[in-house]
Amino acid sequence: MKKSIAILIAVLTVGLLIRAWITPYTSGSDIAQFAGFADTLRRRGLCFYHYADGSHHIEEGWPYSWPCPYGPLAVFLMYVARLFAPSKVDFWWSCGWGSECTYYVYVPVNWIIASKAVFIVFDTLSAILIYLIVLRRTSSTARALAASALYYLNPVTIYVSVVYGMLDPVSTALILLAILFLYTDESSLRRLYIAYFIAGLVLGLAATTKPNTLFAAAAVFLVAVAKNLRRRLLVLSIVAGLVCSVLAPFIPFDVVCPGTIEIFTSILLDVGKPGYNPPIQYSFNGFTSLATFINEKTGFDMLWLINNWWIAAALALLPALYAVLVKKKLDFAEAAYIFYLVYTTTYWRVNYQYFAVLAGLVPLYIFLSRSSRQTKALTLIHIAYVGLWLFIFPTSWWAHVHIREPNQFIIELLDRLSMMVFAEEVYLVYSVILTVLSYSTLTAIYIDLFAKVSEETRSIVQPATHTPQLLYTESPP
């Protein structure tokens, strides 16, 4: 056990060193916007969401007009980070004589470090949670270590947490924490009630912190309910926790400034309204990318292909719902991965940071599910293909676009690791292949799942055959 802890510390140390090395020298655009959110929370207090739809971005000093579709936990975390790094984000338009105007946004280094520290903390917590979950379910330190390393040293995870910098590590850790609590030993019913209540709390926080985790949170919740229909107090425990975490953080906002919940809901609906998704370099739904490309090149109306994304989502989700609610053949980790894979496969607008949650659930699926080796290999190929984008896209863009004094060594290093592809046609092909691979992975998972269900059903229905026993051993007369 001591040896496994030492190896885990070594994995975390390597991952932390990589993160610490990159952190001060890159910044995504969202980090600049997060400073604006934190400043508005400090200025407006519990009336924050009345200024969060993006229409007040100029008076609030936000560099972009993007709204804030994140719950109170996310905004509060950014507010705490801002206390340690209050430096101003600089942004302005520069127009040359007879040339187009350029918009500059520069993020201070202390804010880059402070905000990314939040992501790194939750990123590291996720790696530890994955280790604990796999260890609890398999009692294998080797599998637990491999699962943790698969997440923490994954290029996708590193990109989201420190190269670009986004809140997805927070929601990933919350989903994993809920799964860990739900794997609590059932020998103590009182402990189980507490675990289910906390799991409900954490699931609600995950879904409101970053709404894209709703599919994964819903999966874990449905499995918990389906497994315990006869134990109503357990179901009530997780429901109570979920309701408390979804509503309680918003109640102070709504009491002080009535209409907050309605405004937040309106922001979510507005953000989720389907439409074209340029630039194609950042679009990871093949159908949306194709529709956007055709519209840009020909002017044809292709919105019908994007607007109907929910039909594909519903059809892709039906087998998983059947397995959870009717057959009760999916565990928490399996269901979370499958439901979230459905989301990243079918949702009309998938940003790259959404794959951070998928990267956190892949190790659990590989080491805890009963799928075939071929299907598990396909899930690995799928997440590896997601990671391939990092070596196609010129990632060094984030090392200078928002950095006033770029680090040339980091830029050159990232350039060496990248194929530096700029042609949007390449990203269109990449996105289409990703969608095909995602559907293929889902198909393989469902074939495996229902093959096992059919096999178990046959073994129950088919009567046992018995060899007749002789009553007498003597030879007949």
Summarize the structure.
The chain has 477 residues and is mainly alpha-helical. The protein has 21 helices and two strands. α1 (2-22) crosses α7, α2 (29-44) packs across α4 and α9 packs antiparallel against α10.
Biggest sheet details: 2 strands, antiparallel
Q: Class by helix and strand content? A: mainly alpha
Mean pLDDT: 93
Beta-strand residue fraction = under 5%
Shape: globular
Based on CA atoms alone, the radius of gyration comes out at: 25 Å
As residue ranges, the low-confidence spans are: 464-477
Task: State the helix count.
Answer: 21
How do the SSEs run, as a string of H and E?
HHHHEEHHHHHHHHHHHHHHHHH
- Looking across the biggest beta sheet, what order are the strands in? 1-2
Helix content: 55-70%
Q: How many β-strand stretches?
A: 2
Question: Could you tell me how far the N terminus lies from the C terminus, measured between alpha carbons in angstroms?
Answer: 69 Å
